[in-house]
Every structure is written in structure tokens, then in C-alpha cells.
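Lab notebook, design round three. We kept the backbone fixed and only want residue identities now. Task for the bench partner: fill in a sequence for the structure below.
Input C-alpha cells:
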């Protein structure tokens, strides 16, 4: 679990996220979607909320995610997973060469019969073009991370900006201030499958710095540590948070 250092004037807005397109028989509280071919697992806990996911291929054949036909949708606005980007990785190396030289002019200085150490450098760069199709080999998984949810707190008259005690407001799927989905297209053995993972914010909680963290003594290898550490009191794969300071917006 992550640890963070904050000033005492920090406040936090915590968002609870739930799935919206689930059957009544599915009472699971985690953000996991599964069919006979794959399992898609979400853990959005982070500052700003990360909407990345882990795609697990359960079959004996390769699955091909068509990124050019897959989209992230936030409050009705669609964003493309495939953006036709080019990534460049540059590397360089330096070597030293010593040589006995005679009558050699280096930087306009005459060197006669002395050993000269010269710095030599070389480098190369590799450009990789983003592929529109992502292969998930059989019985394996890959993580995809591209977008975040929100970096600023949501203003609501029922939630105090600087709460003295924890405050929570509930929402249903119709009145939620924040909804998002991942519409993914994949191909398995020539068959195209489309999945739509939908989510909405079901509650927003405002709290102070002291309420947001737990401070205690953890154990390492069965021994209690001699120093206190901070942990997230409300950590959950189905939550994320926004931090703001006293006086900010």
C-alpha cells in the first residue's frame, strides 16, 4: 500500500465507484467483468482515479484487442485508445581512448610524443509506432493504462468544502455526477466480441487530512516496526480521491 506525505491543511474528496451494467444475480462489489473468454479487472485507487485495467486471457488461443475500435467514455465524451503515436527511445554511450601521438593538433594545442585521452561518444535511437492491435497470449494477461477520471473536486452544496467531520452524499446511476465506461473490441479465433464495462460514482465523501489517514505501527517479518507509518484509511480498488488544500478552489 502506498504512503504519502501531506501538509496538515489538506482535505480530500473520496469517490465510491460501482458497476452499472450488472445482472441482479451478480452481487459482487469488486470492479471485475468476466465472460467465458476473459476477465477484466479494474483497480482505480489513485489520486485522480486511474481507469486502466488488467485483461486476462482465459483461453488456449491468443486474443487480439482492437485498440482502434476500443474507447474510453467519460460523461458521454469518447476518447480513443489508439492514437497512432510514435515512441522514440534514445541511448548513448561514451568511451575513453588513449593513444600515443606525435605532432597531433587537438583544440589548436600541439601535442608531441605524449599520451592523449580522448572522450568518444556514440548513440542511437529506436522509434516504435503504436500498434492498433494488442495481442494477449493464451493463459496470460496484460495491463492497459491510458486515462484518469478527475483531478478537481466536485462542488456540491450538501458537502462542506472544509468539513469538521466526515460528510458523504449518495447518488444513483441516473443522478450521478460522474459516469464512465470502457467499450472494448477483441477478436478470438476469427470471432469479434464487443464488451461494455460501465461505471458510475455512487457516493462522494469529503474529509480532513486526519480522517483520511491511519497512523500506526506496522509489522515486518513478524516484528513490529519502531516507527509509525501512514496508510490510506479508505483504500479500495473501487475508490479514488482528489486532494485539495485550504484556500484552493
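Proposed sequence:
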Amino acid at each position: 500500500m502506498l504512503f504519502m506525505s501531506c501538509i496538515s491543511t489538506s482535505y480530500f474528496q473520496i469517490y465510491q465507484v460501482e458497476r452499472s451494467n450488472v445482472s441482479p444475480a451478480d452481487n459482487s462489489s469488486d470492479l471485475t467483468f468476466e465472460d467465458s473468454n476473459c476477465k477484466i479487472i479494474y483497480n482505480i485507487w489513485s489520486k485522480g482515479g486511474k481507469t486502466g485495467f488488467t485483461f486476462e486471457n482465459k483461453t488456449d488461443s491468443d486474443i487480439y484487442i482492437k485498440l482502434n475500435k476500443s474507447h474510453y467514455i467519460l460523461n458521454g465524451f469518447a476518447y480513443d485508445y489508439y492514437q497512432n503515436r510514435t515512441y522514440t527511445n534514445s541511448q548513448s554511450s561514451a568511451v575513453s581512448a588513449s593513444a600515443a601521438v606525435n605532432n597531433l593538433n587537438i583544440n589548436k594545442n600541439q601535442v608531441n610524443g605524449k599520451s592523449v585521452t580522448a572522450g568518444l561518444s556514440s548513440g542511437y535511437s529506436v522509434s516504435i509506432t503504436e500498434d492498433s492491435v494488442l495481442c494477449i497470449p493464451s493463459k496470460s494477461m496484460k495491463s492497459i493504462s491510458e486515462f484518469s477520471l478527475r483531478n478537481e473536486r466536485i462542488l456540491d452544496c450538501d458537502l462542506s468544502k472544509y468539513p469538521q467531520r466526515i460528510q458523504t452524499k449518495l447518488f444513483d446511476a441516473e443522478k450521478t455526477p460522474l459516469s464512465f465506461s470502457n467499450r472494448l473490441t477483441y477478436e478470438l479465433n476469427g470471432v469479434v466480441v464487443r464488451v461494455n464495462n460501465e461505471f458510475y460514482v455512487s457516493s462522494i465523501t469529503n474529509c480532513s487530512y486526519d480522517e483520511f489517514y491511519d497512523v500506526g505501527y506496522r509489522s515486518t517479518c513478524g516484528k513490529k516496526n519502531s516507527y509509525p507509518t501512514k496508510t490510506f484509511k479508505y483504500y479500495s480498488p473501487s475508490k479514488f480521491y482528489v486532494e485539495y488544500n485550504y484556500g484552493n478552489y
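Keep this in mind before ordering anything: The longest strand covers residues 191-208.
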